[in-house]
Amino acid sequence: MNRVYLDYAATTPTHPDVVQAMLPFFGESFGNASSLYSYGREARAAITAARSSVARLIGADEDEIVFTGGGTEADNMALKGIAFAADGKYNHIITTSIEHHAVLGSCEFLENLGFHVTYLPVDKYGLVAPDDVRKAITDNTLVISVMHANNEVGTIQPIAEIGRIARDAGVYFHTDAVQTAGHVPIAVNDMGIDLLSVSAHKLYGPKGVGALFVRTGTRISPLIHGGAQERNRRAGTENLAGIVGFGTAAELARGTMTEEATVLGTLRDRLITGLLERIPEAQLNGHPTSRLPNNVNVSIDYVEGESMLLHLDMEGICASTGSACTSGSLEPSHVLLSMGLSHQLAHGSLRLSLGKWTTGEDVERVLETLQEIVSKLRAMSPLYKAPGRSAQ
Prior knowledge:
By secondary structure, the chain is an alpha/beta fold.
């Protein structure tokens, strides 16, 4: 049975060209970039080239890129680093109720240290209102953190408008762009972004490496001490092969993301239309148009998301009920609850995320298979009343 992978939002397969670029740095090009001899110089040159590639992907300068162990570390570094550098002068943070747990967890940690956090609500599509951001700013506001696009429902936020609000107020602006970098255009200067988090394994790069864009002049304290790496902003010997892979993935994305977004947007719309036509009492979650080109999130009433996942897996189809970081949790999605869904509908959610190797045949197979699975599961439900069938 050929497997269908529709969980690209959780992680992407590493591109073959990325693997090939990384291989020499596990063998003959093994040097430590902090060493002065030739092996070290070769490693340092490779890291510099990768840094330039990641910077070009988001319209930044190479000196503004700090390599990290992933998107989660980048989010932590952005918020905690800004907070620790503030010296108590500013102690207010603004974020939203639907952020990734890396942001929400960092905010909760800072609250325990005495910082004040405002968690802004979102509408039924998962959009935050820029005016709510403006109204939440106080004289003590240090940083605003709003994700570029939501990892569960795919809604793209009005980042440029929020960036202008932050700039006018003299407040730092951070965005988690883990789901968007390499998939939709980003220009940090035009969008008024001061800090931006990226992860390599979401754009066909390796796991275990990410980056934080830190605008020149931004005061930020390191989280990890003990060495002068990353211009004294992140101590520790660099993940050389991972960083090289990240740089290659960034270069590939710059050349292909526009065409890929067009192809995936067509497949996404086909999948959404098919699901809503074939499955009664199903609804799309997230904004209908301002959403990632590869994201489909639906809630299907009278069916548990976990049951759908298990049945899909038996048919060779990989999907998700939400973010990969919380897939083992029995609690309903905090994102869907914040958007106003009931616990029942939130528990019946399914995220199908497409990628570079998704085909039209994959979409048709999922539509046919999922329709059968939902019918089977609903037939076992004492709550579901099918059209033309009297309640028991």
